[in-house]
Amino acid sequence: MAATIENLFGEAVLESFHQPTEVRTGLPGAAYADETFLALENQKLFPERWTFVGFAHQISNPGDVQPATVAGRPIVMVRNQLGDINVFHNVCRHRCLKLVDEASNTGHFIQCPYHTWTYSLDGELKSTPHFGGYGKHQPDNFDMSTHGLVRVRAHCWGDWIFVNLDGNAEAFESYAAPLMDRLEGVDVDSLEALASIDFGEIDTNWKFLMENFMEPYHVQYVHPSTTEQPLGDHRTIVDGLCLGSLVDLPDEQTDAASLAVSSRYLTLFPNFVVGRYFPDQLGVYLNIPVSAGKTRQVRVIYSTGEREFSDEEVKQVRDLWYSVHKEDHSMCERLQAGRASQVALEGGRLSPVWEDSVRRFQELIVDAVS
């Protein structure tokens, strides 16, 4: 029997999740701890939507390649000779070997290490040595033009690379319009990447990292010494596929290494996260599911161009964000551990004031995999 959300959760749990009470029930534990649920997400959620996969500045030169995984499937991002970014399924058309195993510069071509089939940076098949016999490189009636790398639908928004695996999502500009509106005034094409933090694998489901970012309820308890943003100054955001929160502070610090500033904590469903910190910082992080209970996380910190950051300020900002994220990781890993309890079968309870964005995120998850 094919796995479904109904037989994974049970009808009673799903019915409880959908009950329109003021205090809503959250997603049951299986949504975070069961590999079957991640398989449903990889089958139905990530392929059908615009999924965030990487940063353009990390493949800045012609021939730069960056492998990635989306919906459990290998893809590769490639900068071509004209400076454009192509995204392909990361498999050779011969025996479906994974072509690119790590970030590198491949020069003018991408070559399979197994039998040296060779492709251009635009995916065209250029060479198939001895494929038709010794000294005969193309068998009779073999059409090279139809055996190039299989392209993945992709869109670059500033430094951020999105893909739509099934090719059927609406135009990216329409899909992301609510988020773009909330970043009005930010020139995403001129952002300067100041620093990158690779956190490696976090022992938590990717959804916990998303939910933690979009809700302000935990801030004054988990980050009392790093953020200094009182709960009462926050508001939540539920705007189509843009979910999160914001805070406007009357008295703001100008220290680059302080988060006591007006901020926007924004997400684009399913996995894009961007933080706007006035007047001059922006941060984006990428959450890559590794398994139901593990997520790889990378954060890039940007300057929005209002001023120059000294090397010391960049270090201070990086150290600050490392500390903030480790505080969040600790909570998310404990959320994950709690899913082993039978109490988590009911999904917990969500604040109608502070966690409505989390609730909407969970509804979008259920809609996607149902």
Judged by helices, strands and strand pairing, the structural class is alpha+beta
Strand order of the largest sheet: 12-18-17-16-15-14-13
Largest sheet: 7 strands, antiparallel
The radius of gyration computed from the alpha-carbon positions, rounded to a whole number of angstroms, is 22 Å
What fraction strand? Answer: 25-35%
Helix content: 25-40%
Judging from the principal axes of the Cα atoms, what is the shape? globular
Query: What is the terminal separation in angstroms?
Result: 15 Å
- CATH structural class of the largest domain: Alpha Beta
The CATH superfamily title of the largest domain = Naphthalene 1,2-dioxygenase Alpha Subunit, Chain A, domain 1
Give the number of domains: 2
Please tell me the CATH architecture of the largest domain by its name: Alpha-Beta Complex
CATH fold-type name of the largest domain:
Naphthalene 1,2-dioxygenase Alpha Subunit, Chain A, domain 1
Please explain how this structure is put together:
- With 370 residues, the chain is of the alpha+beta class.
- The chain has 2 domains: 51-164, Rieske Iron-sulfur Protein; 185-369, Alpha-Beta Complex (Naphthalene 1,2-dioxygenase Alpha Subunit, Chain A, domain 1).
- Helix content is 25%, strand content 28%.
- It contains 10 helices and 19 strands.
- It has helices at 5-9, 11-18, 30-33, 35-45, 172-175, 177-182, 206-214, 219-222, 311-338, 356-369; strands spanning 24-25, 51-55, 64-70, 73-79, 85-89, 104-105, 109-111, 118-120, 125-127, 153-157, 160-164, 192-202, 234-239, 242-247, 263-268, 272-277, 281-291, 294-303, 349-350.
- The strands form 5 sheets. A 7-stranded antiparallel sheet has the order 12-18-17-16-15-14-13. A 4-stranded antiparallel sheet has the order 5-4-3-6, with no helix packed on it. A 3-stranded antiparallel sheet has the order 2-11-10, with no helix packed on it.
- The radius of gyration is 22 Å and the shape is globular.
- 38% of the residues are buried.
- The model has no long low-confidence stretch (mean pLDDT 94).
